[in-house]
Structure formats: structure tokens, C-alpha cells
């Protein structure tokens, strides 16, 4: 809705991030599920289709990108490179030991981004246009 109102462009970015092996080992000890390898861009294409099918994108210019790298730094680098006006990022809301072991991409992006960052908890996202 913001992009439509201001004539903006939306860029969806998914970063395929490989977790260090020590993080995976600790996470499994805690019973936290962590993928042992990142899926390929081709493997996540069906997920892109599901995600994008639920959005109303007819009135905005948009594109989707999948990149490999460390998630937070890749997001910040792309925002700097394209001179983004805003980053919108989901957050899991982890705390305690899971947060210490897995970190928070959203938190790192908020601390280092060159522009405002809007964080959204997916389970709380129920935005409806008037």
C-alpha cells in the first residue's frame, strides 16, 4: 500500500544463508530445528509463488531476488546499493538462548541499515486494505 501511494517500487529479497556448523550443533541440542543446508533458488521458487500469490501487486512495480550470503549484511548491502527508502523485514521474536545462538537478522539489519526499518512478526501480520 505504501509503494502504491508513493509510486514506489517493491523489491522482495530472500537471502539463502548457511549457518555455521557450531550453531547447528547447539541448536539441535536445544531441540531447535535448523536446516543443515540452504535450499537452491530453484527449490524455493514454489515458496515464492505461494508468497506472491497472496499479495495485490497489480498497481506497483516489483521484482523478486534470491541471493546467497550472510543474511543481514546482504540485506543492508542491497539497501545501500539501491538507495532504498525503507526495509521491511519479518522477525521471529526469538529471545534467550535461541536468540544468542541463532542471532537475529532483523536486529542486525535495524542496527546497521542506511534507512528506516519496519519489522513485522508474521503471526501478527493481518493487514487489510480499506
Q: Structural class, from helix and strand content?
A: alpha/beta
Instruction: Name the CATH architecture.
Output: 3-Layer(aba) Sandwich
Q: Please bin the fraction of helical residues.
A: 40-55%
The CATH homologous superfamily name equals HUPs
CATH class: Alpha Beta
Mean of all residue-level pLDDT scores: 77
Q: What oligomeric state do the depicted chains represent?
A: single chain
- The gross shape turns out to be globular
Q: Can you describe what's shown?
A:
- The protein is of the alpha/beta class.
- It has a single domain, classed as 3-Layer(aba) Sandwich (Rossmann fold).
- The protein is 42% helix and 18% strand.
- It has helices spanning 2-6, 21-29, 41-53, 71-82, 96-102, 105-112, and strands at 9-16, 61-68, 87-90, 117-120.
- Strands 1-2 form a two-stranded parallel ribbon.
- The protein is globular.
- The model is unreliable at 98-102 (pLDDT under 50).
How is this structure best summarized?
This protein has helices spanning 2-6, 21-29, 41-53, 71-82, 96-102, 105-112, and strands spanning 9-16, 61-68, 87-90, 117-120.
Outline the fold blueprint:
Layout: H1 2-6, E1 9-16, H2 21-29, H3 41-53, E2 61-68, H4 71-82, E3 87-90, H5 96-102, H6 105-112, E4 117-120
Parallel strand pairs: 1-2, 3-4
Helix pairs in contact: 4-6
Characteristic key phrases:
single chain; 130 residues; alpha/beta; Rossmann fold; two-stranded parallel ribbon; 6 helices; 4 strands; 42% helix
Amino acid at each position: 500500500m505504501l509503494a502504491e501511494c508513493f509510486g514506489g517500487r517493491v523489491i522482495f529479497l530472500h537471502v539463502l544463508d548457511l549457518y555455521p556448523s557450531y550453531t547447528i550443533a547447539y541448536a539441535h541440542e536445544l531441540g531447535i530445528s535448523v536446516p543443515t543446508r540452504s535450499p537452491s533458488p530453484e527449490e524455493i521458487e514454489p515458496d515464492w509463488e505461494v508468497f506472491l500469490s497472496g499479495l495485490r501487486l497489480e498497481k506497483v512495480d516489483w521484482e523478486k531476488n534470491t541471493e546467497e550470503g550472510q543474511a543481514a549484511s546482504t540485506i543492508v548491502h542491497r539497501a545501500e546499493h539501491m538507495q532504498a527508502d525503507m526495509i521491511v523485514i519479518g522477525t521471529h521474536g526469538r529471545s534467550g538462548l535461541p536468540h544468542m545462538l541463532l542471532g537475529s537478522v532483523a536486529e542486525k539489519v535495524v542496527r546497521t541499515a542506511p534507512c528506516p526499518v519496519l519489522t513485522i512478526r508474521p503471526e501478527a501480520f493481518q493487514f487489510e486494505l480499506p
